[in-house]
Write a structure and sequence with these properties.
- The chain is 24% helix and 28% strand.
- The protein has a single domain, classed as 3-Layer(aba) Sandwich (Dihydrofolate Reductase, subunit A), CATH 3.40.430.
- It contains four helices and ten strands; from the N terminus they run ββαβαββαβαββββ.
- The model has no long low-confidence stretch (mean pLDDT 92).
- It is of the alpha/beta class.
- The chain has an eight-stranded mixed sheet with strand order 5-4-3-6-1-7-10-9.
Length: 187
């Protein structure tokens, strides 16, 4: 780990109406045929350079199982970056970079993540994101809004999440119509 202060980012892809997963868990809605002429174009090199800065991923068991399914067609999205999967269930671990964790979230963050990593991304699911917020364990939220209204599915935020002040740090609009907002979580 470098001398930089560790940062925990909650990364979420959402529809405009705040849905992060359809009931059938399909993600075809992530891709959009929309075009926004003033949007930023991201090259594969840009994306790869950005992803190299992430030194650990954290995800829930259902997100992990979904990622394994997607990997059959698209490859493992997280490369060799350490990935910690939170689960009370025994799951198959198919990569050396993946480990299971079944303990307390605060223990994970304070004893495992912060001492060893500087840029941790929590990539799903909804309950895990809500728990990071509930226990005030995250530093920022990075939400990518896809230009679609789904109407039904799993909502990111509900009545279980209490009021939380945020500060806009950055935003980008992309050529495909997706808008990304980065918020610092005020503590």
């Amino acid at each position: 780990m470098t001398g930089a202060a560790p940062k925990i980012t909650l990364h979420v892809v959402s529809s405009l109406d705040g849905i992060i997963a359809k009931k059938d868990n399909s993600v075809s809605w992530f891709e959009t045929a929309d075009t926004y002429e003033k949007g930023v174009t991201v090259t594969e090199d840009d994306a790869a350079a950005f992803l190299r800065k992430i030194d650990c991923y954290v995800m829930g068991s259902h997100t992990y199982e979904h990622a394994l399914e997607l990997a059959k067609n698209y490859g493992w999205a997280y490369g060799d970056t350490p990935t910690i999967v939170l689960s009370q269930r025994h799951l198959a671990v198919e990569r050396n970079s993946v480990e299971l964790f079944s303990g307390d979230l605060e223990t994970l963050v304070n004893e495992r993540l912060k001492p060893n990593y500087t840029n941790v991304w929590v990539v799903g699911g909804a309950e895990l994101v809500k728990n990071f917020l509930r226990y005030k364990l995250a530093d920022e939220i990075r939400i990518s809004v896809v230009p679609i209204i789904l109407g039904d599915g799993l909502r990111l935020f509900d009545e279980t999440v209490s009021e939380q002040a945020l500060r806009l740090k950055d935003h980008s609009a992309y050529k495909n119509g997706m808008v990304e907002m980065v918020y610092e979580i005020k503590k």
